[in-house]
Amino acid sequence: MLEVKGLTKRFGGNVAVKSVDYSVQQGKINAIIGPNGAGKSTFFNLITGVHEPTEGTIIYKNQEITRQPANVIAKLGVARTFQSTHLFEMSTVKDNVIVGHRLRTKSNLFDSIFRTKRLKEEEQQCIAKAEESLDFVGLSHVSDQLVTNISQEEKKRVAFALALATDPEIVFLDEPTAGVNPDETDEMANLIQKMSDKGLTICLIEHKMPMIMRLAHHIMVLNYGEKIAEGTPAEIQKNEEVIKAYLGGTVSA
Amino acid sequence: MELLLQQLFNGLTIGSVYALVALGLTLVYGILHIPNFAHGALYMVGGYITLIMMTEAGLHYILAMVVSICVVGLLSVLMERLVFYPLRHSPPIQDKVAAIGILLFLEALAQFIWGADYRQMSTPFGQVVEVFGLTLTLQRILIVFAAIAVMILLYWFLKKTFTGSTIIAMAQNREGAQLVGINTHKVAILTFFIAGALAAIGASLTSPINLVFPGMGHLVILKAFVIIIIGGMGSIPGAILGGYILGFTESLGATYLSADYKDIIAFVLLILILSIKPQGIFSKGGV
Amino acid sequence: MNILTNKKVIISLLIVLGIVFPFIIPNLYYLHIMTLAFIWTIAVYGLNLLAGYTGYLSLAHGGFFAIGAYVIGILTVKLEMGFWLSFLLAPLVTMFIGLIIGLFALRTKEHFFAIYTLCVGYIIYLVIDKWEGLTGGVRGLIGIPLPEAIGPISFQSPTAQYYLAFIIFLLVVAVIYRIVHSLTGRTFVAIRNSEDLALSLGISTKRNKLLAFVLSTFFAGLAGAMYAGFIRFIGPEIAYTTITFDLLTYMIVGGIGTFAGPIVGTFLIVIISQNLQFLQDYRMLIFGPLLTLLIIFSPRGIVGFIQMQLYQRKRKKQESLAYKNREEETNAGG
Ligand SMILES: Nc1ncnc2c1ncn2[C@@H]1O[C@H](COP(=O)(O)OP(=O)(O)OP(=O)(O)O)[C@@H](O)[C@H]1O
Ligand SMILES: [Mg+2]
Hints:
Chain C: This is Branched-chain amino acid ABC transporter permease. Chain C: It is a multi-pass membrane protein. The structure holds three protein chains of three kinds. By secondary structure, chain A is α/β, with parallel strands linked by helices. Chain A folds into two domains: 1-77 and 170-176 and 201-253, 3-Layer(aba) Sandwich (Rossmann fold), CATH 3.40.50; 86-167, P-loop containing nucleotide triphosphate hydrolases (Rossmann fold, 3-Layer(aba) Sandwich), CATH 3.40.50.300. Chain A is built from ten helices and ten strands. Chain A has helices at 40-47, 70-75, 93-98, 109-114, 117-136, 152-165, 182-197, 209-215, 233-238, 240-245, and strands spanning 2-11, 14-24, 29-33, 55-60, 63-64, 78-80, 170-174, 201-205, 218-223, 226-231. Chain A has a six-stranded mixed sheet with strand order 6-7-8-3-9-10, sandwiched between helices. In chain A, a hairpin with a 2-residue loop joins strand 1 and strand 2 (14-24). Chain B has a two-stranded antiparallel sheet with strand order 1-2. In chain B, helix 5 crosses helix 6 (162-172), helix 6 (162-172) crosses helix 8 and helix 9 runs parallel beside helix 11 (262-276). The model of chain B has no long low-confidence stretch (mean pLDDT 87). Chain C has one domain (23-277): ABC transporter involved in vitamin B12 uptake, BtuC. In chain C, strands 1-2 form a two-stranded antiparallel sheet. The B-C interface holds B 35, 83, 86-87, 90-94, 96-98, 100-109, 111-112, 116, 218, 222, 225-226, 229, 260-261, 263-264, 266-268, 270-271, 274-275, 278-280 and C 51, 55, 57, 104, 107-112, 114-116, 118-120, 122-123, 126-127, 130, 241, 245, 248-249, 252, 256, 281-285, 287-293, 295-296, 299. Residues 11, 14, 16, 34, 36-42, 83 of chain A line the site of adenosine-5'-triphosphate. The site of magnesium ion has 3 residues of chain A, from helix 1.
């Protein structure tokens, strides 16, 4: 459903992503792994429109989206989370998530000032969506807390809820369990599985191998910006080059 | 021709002062990524301290300038410790506001202590000399040479001494500097001291040919910002070059375009540059 | 207790206070000060919309205030247009100039934006100061007419002018309330919070930033026009950075990014300044450090501080309530 061809990104002299061909399998959990600085986040940034690719094309549902701005791509049903969360700490969890559905609404300044019927309806719609998403990620009980008072893992879940509130078809998750303890990591994995079961296509960057091996249907390995391997978890675990890239064996660790 | 030469020399004089002020601003920006809006107030205080030391304490101009360098340097360090340090992890809007608060305070303070009048500073270097058929005051020659000497000294300090090189290291890579054991607090303090000292030197040099008053820092600091954006935020050669470019442009603009609008030149320049290149001329990154 | 923190009660009380003020304190000087405070508050609301809610600190705000004032000044004094038509045009023209400047200024971010707008402010000041033919230069514009009477209502008396400013003030507050408490306001806050995140949520940051910028210049222009109509004389000093920094101080002290902040900050400082008359020129001796201290210790000003206290109290109450319930349960169970 999403396909990239010859995707390349240069930052000055530094090539962060080097002519990568890749296609995301619909309805599956697709994982991208690679050592630090391999270009994984940059790869996500290119697809989701945060950065413009130097070369290559990105096709989503038979439509070229290369060089489209991030907000346009989001409207097409591509959602993402960031490696670090950017929530507004001094506001409640629910207030943070409500704006997630904004892109599906049409109210403008006029509607806001005159509180038109459309605005009221759409506001209700956004609130309902936020509640639904928070419920889905299991955070209903903290929805009235300030973000600053919830745990790191809960913040990650809020970021998921925000992405879900956009009504996406495909979700890109950049290291969703970074800075989360092992028990909670398992729960996050369950959540990702639950999202997949709901019919969402998932594309996931992770360093935690056991989790990847358990969750992913398909794995791509990046190293120094290049795709060095691709396949099922079992295939990747055996791949010589991948093991070399990870300096001997941490893949199966 | 003679007018042109005269204007070029004027440009050199103004440019020297701009470069000194911009250097301080760019050093602080390079190390801490703070656009220090209060830098102009330091400049103003520098002018006053020199003036007061001469008129009230009867010190010689040069000696007064030394006192001024120390006082403003320490004031600058105090600012870092009391304000910018506590705000180091805050959103960027906050340190700007804090700096503006300091600026407003120092200006009001200067006005409170020394009054709002425009005051003249005398100089032992008032003589007029003829060089290459140009009539120049010794003070203007002093400005140019002193500024250049200070810049060379600064350059030597940053490049050839260990302490200086820690500043450069931290400007280039903050985390890296911390990792190799550089004491970032010390570097920040030192940088603020140097920035304050440079502002004091600039103000003390130029005051005898301009005037001393509470608002004397306004235009200078704005122009210094323009300079470091032209020269690349954090770049030392950029600040020097930018200072002289602006100095020349202004003095030529005043003569050949419009004296009324000469102050606008810098701002129009900046607006043009940032409208075309929103991240400054020498911004890195491939976006 | 409850009655003191109830929003509706407070708002109604304040409105009543505003209405009866000229009767309680029939002092022309205080009336003048209050009228000015209404005007400043409107300008501060504009600044707050952009800096507080959208995260872009504009230092050209005083400049736009001056543009509003000068548009009405030029239209009425030089072109001899009627007051009301000029008054209508002033914020619109300011907004239009804001739109053009915003298109370029908003390509920059953070400190570049602050420096850019500071320079824009300076250019506005220099143009007003130097363009004698249009603006009267340093002499300024004298003799801006009073608003023409609307039917039986004339605006000759200071009391009438007070009520006019008060009504516009209430309208502005209502409009701002609706903007910030709607999807539009939420969109602005999302941008302040993180532009990357906002973009990834499908928000057009470009359009919304421009909207916030243009709105902020609209309110600056409106306040400027009201100021010119009220004081009836304007000079280039109203375009100087002092005004921008005053407005900034009102906003920070009241609480940047809070709804009540602009009112609280402006009225508090204006009233304090009046009572410290001897300080006039030196008021920044107090407000400068106050600005710096507040931003360090209570970045969201007085209103933000109170909000936090109320929130924490509520939380504690809930916690102790939850604790009590648990106790009772275990007691009942045991
Ligand atoms: N905006 C940018 N400007 C310049 N260089 C960048 C930028 N973003 C990333 N890079 C560079 O691109 C390379 C790849 O970085 P990227 O963040 O994509 O790696 P990553 O695989 O996500 O690493 P990690 O596992 O640590 O998150 C790095 O060398 C990085 O320095
Ligand atoms: Mg990454």
